Amino acid sequence: MTDLLNHRDLSAVIDAWAASITDKPPLQRDPRLWDLFEEDRRIYGIYSQNGRKGGRPKRGSIPVVGVDEGGCRECGRKMRPRRTSLSTHPDTVSPGANGLCAGCYIRPAQRGAE
Q1: Residue 1, pLDDT score
Q2: What is the pLDDT of residues 22-62, one digit of tens each?
Q3: Cα dist from 3 to 6, 9, 37, whole Å
Q4: Cβ-contact 79, 92 below 8 angstroms
Q5: Which branch of life, at top level (predicted)?
Q6: With CB atoms counted within 10 Å of each terminal CB, which end of the chain scores lower, N or C?
Q7: 3-state SS of the chain?
Q8: pLDDT score recorded for residue 36
């Protein structure tokens, strides 16, 4: 009796149903739901840039370390391990190749050298 629908079929059915409704009001934010989820917005930082922890590190916050401690051979900035994210290793730069960070590795190519 019930047919299994894939997501495309279901989407088409929902779109057809929505198009069949006449005199529908424009979408609006429900003030009751907005109030109910106020604590969630505060906890998880939704709709707020203050709670963001990701993003690019500030240039001055990246420590300069030796090559033996995981620093870039050219600029000395600390590099994070490969296949890891900035959120797990804050205040690091992404690695390039040959012991260089990504910025130092692509710099000659940007200048047109080599």
Answers
A1: 40
A2: 887 777 778 888 888 888 777 776 555 554 455 665 666 67
A3: 10, 11, 36
A4: yes
A5: Bacteria
A6: N
A7: CCCCCCHHHHHHHHHHHHHHCCCCCCCCCCHHHHHHCHHHHHHHCCCCCCCCCCCCCCHHHCCECCHHHCECCCCCEEECCCCCCCCCCCCCECECCCCCEHHHHHHHHHHCCC
A8: 85
How far is 94 from 89, CA to CA, in rounded Å? 10
Asked whether the beta carbons of 41 and 47 are under 8 A apart, the reply is yes
Count of residues in the chain: 114
Quick one: tokens of 69? 């401690």
Residue-wise pLDDT tens digits, 52-96: 455 665 666 677 787 888 889 888 888 999 898 888 888 888 898
In this structure, how many other beta carbons lie within 10 angstroms of the beta carbon of residue 65?
15
- Residue 95 token pair: 């690695």
